[in-house]
Amino acid sequence: MDILKGAQTTYQIGYHIVWGVKYCKRLLNNQMKSFLADLCQQICISYDYHFICIGLAPNHVHLFVGAPPKIAPAKVAQTVKSITARELYKSFPQLRRQLYGGNIWKDGYYVGTVGETQTEGKIKSYIARQEGKHSIKQIKQLKLFFQTKY
Questions:
Q1: CA distance 18 to 112
Q2: Fewer CB within 10 Å, N or C, the chain?
Q3: Is 145 inside a domain boundary?
Q4: What would the pLDDT profile of 108-120 be if each residue is shown by its tens digit?
Q5: pLDDT by residue (tens digit) across 75-108?
Q6: What's the domain count of the chain?
Q7: d(Cα 92, Cα 82) in Å, to the nearest integer?
Q8: What is the DSSP string of the chain?
Q9: Does 14 reside within a domain?
Q10: Are 139 and 47 within 8 A, CB to CB?
Q11: Is 27:19 a contact under the CB 8 Å cutoff?
Q12: Quick one: pLDDT at residue 139?
């Protein structure tokens, strides 16, 4: 990650943002993933974010992006999630039949910053490993009630 300069600032800020498909559905096929990767790059260019890399699994997205310090990570996540949702629905209208309620993404997200313990190389290699790791993983159903012994 490069050191960048603004009008009065010098910065090196990177965010690892992860968000998922609503209801954990495995909806993102290869065509959608390719579309989404290109779209995220275009969004980053348009909003002056610094696209570093992206990792796409069938049910979630990892985006590694930089932004000037005046832009909060919440704003980056909100911008990317809202634009990608709108454009995915336009380009792939069949998604509406699989996702009731009109939302493609879950409400929340994870964001981590690049720092002393999480270096750029670690995040890039983590994102690169995710697609293969999550493509076969089955999620075990949680139980609603627990029995306790007193």
A1: 9
A2: C
A3: no
A4: 999 998 765 667 7
A5: 999 999 999 999 999 999 888 888 877 789 999 9
A6: 1
A7: 15
A8: ---EE-SS-EE--EEEEEEEBGGG-----HHHHHHHHHHHHHHHHHTT-EEEEEEE-SSEEEEEEE--TTS-HHHHHHHHHHHHHHHHHHH-TTHHHHSTTS-SB-S--EEEE--SSS-HHHHHHHHHHHHHHHHHPPPPPPPS------
A9: yes
A10: no
A11: no
A12: 43
Would residue 147 count as lying in a domain? Answer: no
Q: Which domain holds residue 125?
A: 4-136
Contact between residue 39 and residue 84 where contact means Cβ atoms under 8 Å apart: yes
CA separation for the pair 115, 131 (Å, rounded): 24
Write down the residue that tokens 């930089």 correspond to.
66
Angle CA(58)–CA(25)–CA(103) in degrees, nearest 5? Answer: 105
In a domain, 141, yes or no: no
Question: In CATH, what number is assigned to the domain containing residue 98?
Answer: 3.30.70.1290
Tens digits of residue pLDDT in 33-68: 999 999 999 999 999 999 999 999 999 999 999 999
User: Under a CB-based contact definition with an 8 Å cutoff, are residues 109 and 18 in contact?
Assistant: yes
